[in-house]
Design goal:
By secondary structure, the chain is mainly alpha-helical. It has helices spanning 3-38, 42-47, 53-74.
Length: 84
C-alpha cells in the first residue's frame, strides 16, 4: 500500500463521514423545525419518547454530527461538487 493510496482512502472516509454528518444534521434540523412550528418531536414519537434509549442515541448522533460539521468551516481544501 502506497502513501498515495492511504491518503486517497483517508479522503474517501472523510467525505463519507461528511455526508453522514450532514444527513444527520438535516434530520435534526427538520425535527427542530417540527418542534418549533408544531410542538411535535418526530424522533421522540418514532422511537417511544424523549427518554427512550434509541431517541437519546439519535439526539447524541445529531450532536456529534454538528461537532464534526464545525470542521467543515475550517478546512483549507474544501471538497467541491466536481471532486465528488
Amino acid at each position: 500500500i502506497s502513501v498515495t493510496n492511504i491518503f486517497a482512502l483517508k479522503k474517501e472516509c472523510e467525505i463519507m463521514l461528511d455526508k453522514i454528518a450532514l444527513t444527520l444534521l438535516i434530520i435534526g434540523g427538520l425535527n427542530w423545525g417540527l418542534v418549533g412550528i408544531f410542538s411535535f418531536d418526530l424522533v421522540a414519537w418514532a422511537f417511544g419518547g424523549q427518554g427512550a434509549a434509541i431517541s437519546r442515541i439519535v439526539y447524541v448522533l445529531v450532536a456529534l454530527s454538528a461537532a464534526w460539521c464545525v470542521s467543515l468551516l475550517f478546512r483549507k481544501n474544501a471538497v467541491t461538487a466536481e471532486q465528488m
